[in-house]
Amino acid sequence: CPRAREMQPPAPPYEVLPTEVKMEDMPRSTTVTVEETPPPPRDHLPWSFFTTLYGNFCCLGLLAFIFSIKSRDRKVLGDYSGARSYGSTAKYLNIAALVINTIIVIIIITVVAVLASRVPPSYSQPPYYGGNH
After folding, report:
1. How far is residue 87's CA from residue 93's CA, in Å, rounded to a whole number?
2. Which domain of life is it from (predicted)?
3. Contact (CB, 8 A) for 35 and 78
4. What pLDDT shows up at residue 32?
5. pLDDT beneath 50: ranges in the chain
6. 68: which residues sit within 8 A by CB, 6+ positions away?
7. 3-class state of residue 109 by DSSP
8. Are 56 and 32 in contact (CB under 8 A)?
9. pLDDT at 127
10. Which of 14, 21, 28, 91 gets the most CB atoms within 10 Å of its CB?
């Protein structure tokens, strides 16, 4: 069929071997290219979960948890770009919540320490008047 010949790609160019060289004497090699798949992006779900439970200042932990779930969903669907974006947002929300909660704890400890140092000591024993009563 002449039309089938037109649709076939042309044969690659080749060199004719000299008559003194035999194909069996030629070196043979095989090249295998192995591509490493990039590791899947992190979704920070456990970190977001604990931030939601223990450090949910202004709902930052809850927002981080939601973005972590979205990141995991994107990862399952194979959308690594979307998963990386949501995971990055969850990470930054977790960091912000951690920093704010750490500052709040430091302020509370400082205020309690200052207030405790100003309270006069209380006497648990009645005063001693000296003498036999």
Report:
1. 10
2. Eukaryota
3. no
4. 79
5. none
6. 43, 44, 45, 47, 48, 49, 86, 87, 90
7. helix
8. no
9. 61
10. 91
